[in-house]
Design goal:
Number of strands of chain A: 2
Shape of chain B: globular
CATH superfamily of chain B: MetI-like
Low-confidence stretches of chain A: 1-20
Largest sheet of chain A: 2 strands, antiparallel
CATH topology of chain A: MetI-like fold
Helix content of chain A: over 70%
Structural class of chain A: mainly alpha
CATH class of chain B: Mainly Alpha
CATH architecture of chain A: Orthogonal Bundle
CATH architecture of chain B: Orthogonal Bundle
CATH class of chain A: Mainly Alpha
Distance between the termini of chain A: 36 Å
Number of helices of chain A: 14
Distance between the termini of chain B: 41 Å
CATH superfamily of chain A: MetI-like
Strand order of the largest sheet of chain A: 1-2
Radius of gyration of chain B: 23 Å
Helix content of chain B: over 70%
Largest sheet of chain B: none
CATH topology of chain B: MetI-like fold
Number of domains of chain A: 1
Order of helices and strands of chain B: HHHHHHHHHHHHH
Strand content of chain A: under 5%
Largest interface: A-B, 109 and 104 residues
Number of domains of chain B: 1
Oligomer: heterodimer
Shape of chain A: globular
């Protein structure tokens, strides 16, 4: 379509290349015009609010009246208050469910089903595994609230296998509510992780598996020395995504438990919302927001570092 | 050979079990949705007398037609504009700037891991100051900004892979950068743009936090936000709640099934790059 004009001699082309160089004044202006709309939107609705969050976090403010400077008090509260620490701890407990189950189980399943994703069967599998990614998390929350209800499927199943004494209202139980929320997250994320890992395995050179088998490798060795190293990047992606989903969770908790019973399932996202809009502690909410942002960054930085492409 | 096929069989069995686990919550909702309204049904039990009418009732109660309209308006407000300005910026950052401006790109990328909760409180005051609270613009405008890190990252990655010769050829033909962008680069970027549009559509349609905080009236919200309000109002009537939830998640599922391949590709690439 836009083949270089062949009738232009090479030398002329060399010369004409010069004014194309990036960095002249005119092209700088053009570049800026291309980037400006996106940057403006980003600055207005992300950078400025983030700066405001940071500023609010040093205030004592009910959102209406006069704000007073509060120093680091809000941060000290976030890092010492027993309730807030428990809430932050809840988020990290959710990581165990949102991340370890989908990635761990996903690895086992992906290596068991590798090579089965061709044809119609594969298409159907992919479609179904992706369903939880397509529906709103709110819908997943409602569906699972019903699964975990006292007459729901989970209890029905327990009764069917003779474990009637185990039945309970899972989401209202002080011990089991958080694991139940974790299971919802695991359900949402498992399919995506499996598909990412299966695709990753498909990219591993089959001759590696052949070589391992010739060397007499057991399935476990095959997994440990061929599959796992070959999947480093995909595992990194899954871990990163699921950690963010756990630490920044809001929708599922809001719908399934509203953070209860007590604060056993309250997560930072929900607490920020409550503090800012129900308890009118904008300063404290903002300090928690900044802490949450930093926690996400700090949690995924080592993952990114460990799983990046080593070249 | 026999070993292999039994292994295959086992693998397929495992897949089928997993598929059942995945669809079980939907089946359970369906069975509850067909129970008589106001009763307290069992988790998974085909009702003796399926009440398909519950779906019509839920459609009316939830004012589905208005919800669809509202969500569509929000998507139309967010997706085309976001895709356009993200594509422009991605091109600008990949092809028009030198390494000296790498920091600008890094500023965008910084937003990739930002939880929306980190900015929701100031967003509320900002949107209120703009006089947009309780309007669809309260969702549309912030979402455009919040999508820029991913959008710009995504499109820049695409444009980095486009050979420079192409630009040079277009320039030699006397095209301005804008002409080159519109007539050469955008048509070539169609697959990347399509994937981005699909992802942004899904994320917008399913967005929950912004509507909950910024818009009171469910009729001005996204589908997901409206579902939250629906649960608040009808949470005790399990059959109606389940029927409404199924209705509300139907549009995305239908669109997903229609464009299954594109969606899967977009979600996978989106995950890898995001």
């Amino acid at each position: 379509m836009t083949e270089p004009q062949t009738n232009v001699p090479a030398a002329t082309r060399q010369i004409q290349r010069l004014p194309l160089n990036r960095g002249s004044r005119n092209s700088k202006l053009t570049a800026w015009l291309f980037i400006a709309p996106a940057f403006l939107a980003y600055a207005t609705f992300v950078l400025v609010p983030l700066g405001m969050s940071f500023y609010y976090s040093f205030l004592r403010w009910d959102g209406i009246g006069k704000a007073t400077f509060h120093g680091l008090t809000n941060y000290i509260t976030v890092l010492t208050d027993a309730d807030l620490l428990q809430i932050i701890g809840n988020a990290f407990q959710l990581v165990a469910y949102f991340t370890l189950i989908p990635v761990g189980l996903g690895l086992a399943i992906a290596s068991a089903i590798r090579g089965q994703m061709a044809g119609t069967f594969g298409t159907v599998t992919r479609t179904i595994f992706f369903l939880p990614q397509v529906i709103p998390l709110v819908a997943a929350g409602i569906a699972w609230s019903w699964m975990f209800a006292s007459t729901g499927v989970v209890n029905q199943g327990l009764k069917a296998i003779g474990l009637s004494s185990w039945t309970r209202g899972w989401l209202g139980d002080f011990v089991w509510a958080l694991p139940a929320v974790g299971v919802i997250g695991a359900w949402v994320l498992l399919g995506l992780c499996i598909m990412l890992l299966v695709t990753g395995i498909a990219k591993i050179d089959p001759s590696l598996y052949e070589a391992a088998r010739l060397d007499g490798a057991r399935p476990w060795h095959e997994f440990r020395y061929v599959t796992l190293p070959g999947l480093r990047q995909e595992i990194g992606v899954c871990v990163t995504l699921t950690i963010i989903a756990a630490l920044a969770s809001f929708d599922i908790v809001y719908i399934a438990t509203q953070g209860g019973p007590g604060i056993t399932t309250t997560v930072p996202g929900l607490e920020i919302y409550r503090l800012a809009f129900a308890h009118r502690q904008v300063g404290l909410a903002s300090a928690l927001a900044i802490v949450l942002m930093v926690l996400v960054l700090v949690s995924i930085a080592p993952v990114q570092w460990l799983t990046r492409d080593k070249k | 050979m026999k070993m292999l096929s039994s292994k295959t069989l086992l693998a397929r069995l495992l897949i089928v079990v997993l598929m059942l686990v995945t669809v079980l919550p939907f089946l359970s909702m369906l069975s509850a949705a067909l129970a008589p309204s106001g009763t307290y049904p069992n988790g998974l039990q085909w009702p003796a007398d399926p009440q398909w009418g519950n779906f019509f009732k839920a459609f009316e109660v939830a004012q589905m037609d208005q919800l669809l309209l509202s969500s569509s308006l929000i998507v139309l407000g967010v997706v085309p504009l976001s895709v356009l300005i993200a594509t422009m910026a991605g091109y600008g950052l990949a092809k028009l700037t030198t390494d000296r401006y790498k920091w600008l790109y890094l500023v965008f990328v910084f937003g990739l891991t930002l939880p929306f909760e980190a900015v929701i409180t100031p967003l509320y005051y900002e949107v209120r100051a703009m006089g947009l609270l309780n309007t669809r613009f309260a969702i549309i405008l912030p979402l455009i900004g919040l999508y820029m890190p991913f959008g710009v990252y995504w499109m820049r990655a695409h444009f980095l892979n486009v050979p420079n010769d192409l630009s040079e050829a277009a320039q030699l033909d006397g095209a301005t950068r804008w002409k080159e962008f519109l007539l050469v680069q955008v048509p070539l970027a169609r697959p990347a743009i399509m994937s981005l549009a699909i992802l942004l559509f899904l994320w917008t349609w399913n967005q929950f936090l912004l509507p909950v905080v910024l818009v009171q009236d469910p009729m001005q919200r996204t589908m997901a936000g409206a579902l939250g309000a629906f649960q608040g109002q009808w949470g005790t009537d399990i059959p109606l709640l389940c029927a409404g939830s199924l209705l509300i998640l139907t549009p995305t599922v239908v669109i997903f099934l229609l464009f299954q391949r594109q969606f899967v590709a977009a979600l996978m690439q989106g995950a890898v790059k995001g």
